[in-house]
Amino acid sequence: MDKNHKLVKIFHGPQHPGITGNMSVEIDLDGETIVNSETHVGYLHRGFEKLVERRTIPQAFTIVCRICVPEPDPNEENFARGIENLAGIEVPEKGKWIRTMVLEMQRLTSLFLWMAGQGGSLGLYVNPQWAVADRDLMLDLYEELTGGRVYHMYIYPGGVRNDLPSGFLQRLSSLLDYYETRLPEYDRVFFHNAVFKKRAVGTGVVTPETALKHGVVGPALRAAGFEKDVRKYAPYEMYDRVEFDVPTRTESDVYARAMVRRIEFEQSIRILRQVIADMPSEGPVNVKLKNHRQFKIPRGETWVRTESSRGEFAYYMASDGSEKLRRMQVKGPSMVHAMSLLPEVLKGAQLADVAMIMNSLGTCPPEIER
User: Helix or strand or coil: residue 278?
Assistant: First the structure.
């Protein structure tokens, strides 16, 4: 490049509708081609780990769901299971089944939100309108179950906060019936759309070597040919009691990551069908804990992980024997996907493809700021 040739610097976000949350990507452009880029987080949801360490366990559990706003339940699951490991608490069987149900309901809502964002990044606006509306139907069930549509604070150390409302499983089953009728429509307007294929095939390729070097997880890793899913190789709750497949592709581009998620949507419905069939009709759903000032955790440390819709989500937790955690550290997919992988994948890409590539990787900025 001529030394007198100047690059154009622009900021993609945080005000840009194509950004995945409160973050920004600083881009150096040569024409429409990206030469360099750097991700900046938005300083909105900050310091959750230290906030948790300064509160008692029952107080802290209301904080962790904010670590990823669109997908709070894997955070609740990790926090609860970590406390249970440290305190030696055994969750009742029905509580485990309900947790599995809630996590798969969350996966569906997260996949809907991803479909909305990915369609919007391409100008396929029927897709986000449909996806947000269909997601809202699951949020109605969440509101009935937990009292909240976004933050649920339902998966609690010792189990879940309350039992299922009367007729809840029947209403969930009816909604799954509806979702299955909708999938062919999403195939028509989005997954098999000629515009999406033209833009996505061969774009944002992450080689298997690059995926392993950066520690990529979730659909982005499975689209590179690796059959890795925490629910399979380190099952938790009732995932060892249900059957499901882990989809993979080898092209490892934006379209491959989309098709992996498309199949995962079907697999989540498959899991939920089994949960509905096998859910115990009776039995406790939680273990009653002591008053939050009396509930102390034995000294020790633990590492727990959950398969979120974006990949492996893990917590390290350490106790010094008091009523508060001595240390908590969160390891989510976003630190790798947004901070180290995204700038590498964007190099040489076109400006118009930034939002599409970013959405395909799956990022949640508060995970980075935690």
Answer: helix
